[in-house]
Amino acid sequence: MDRRTLLSGGGVLLAAQLLPGEAGARAKSSPATADDARFMQLAIDQAKEGDYPFGAVIVRGGRVLAFGRNSSKRNADPTAHAEMMAIRAFLNGHEPEAFKETTLYTSGEPCVMCMGAIVWCGIKRVVFAASIAQLATRIGQIDISARQIANATPFASIDITGGLLSGDAMRLFPNGKP
Ligand SMILES: [Zn+2]
């Protein structure tokens, strides 16, 4: 495998897996791409329509297959987080098996409920904008990271990329700058 191969696609995952101190970790990470930024912008657009400013999209093979926005007020359902709405929308048209090839983009790092659902579904990769630590400065959060959930899940092998367009996601909250 030459350097070019190592730096593209799955090679990045291999490199990430070999980092010192990461042995045994179930969450991997790979750098964001231009496509990632495009899909994250769509998630942020969803967040603008949410009851709280959170949005998500599920993508496979360069196509958006499901959208979700926080609908906890309109649905009178506290579990109607953007990621849960996107997962439910995806299942409207696809078998659960199809999650294995998907990436979920979300404007906020998934909470314990959503990250639990993500690993139960077998989603391949998660890309988030604002971190839980950032979000906690604006709105109540459970202080457990998506990576902690993934690393505590023996059957999960999920790629997590954080921080993409986090400033844009944070600006959706009414009380000030990121
Ligand atoms: Zn959530």
Kindly report how far apart the N and C termini lie.
41 Å
Beta-strand proportion: 15-25%
Overall structural class, as computed from helix and strand content, comes to alpha/beta
Helix content: 25-40%
Per CATH, the superfamily is Cytidine Deaminase, domain 2
Work out the helix count.
Answer: 8
Q: Which architecture would the CATH scheme give at its second level?
A: 3-Layer(aba) Sandwich
Tally of DSSP β-strands: 6
Count of distinct structural domains: 1
Ligands bound, unique: zinc ion
What general form does the structure show? globular
Poorly predicted regions: 1-24
List the strand order in the largest sheet. 1-6-5-4-2-3
Q: Please, what is the average pLDDT?
A: 88
**SSE pattern:** HHEHEEHEHEHHEH
The major beta sheet can be summarized as: 6 strands, mixed
Structure report:
This protein has 178 residues and is of the alpha/beta class. The chain has a single domain, classed as Cytidine Deaminase, domain 2 (3-Layer(aba) Sandwich), CATH 3.40.140. Strands 1-6-5-4-2-3 form a six-stranded mixed β-sheet. The protein starts with a helix and ends in an 8-residue tail after the last helix. Zinc ion binds next to helix 5.
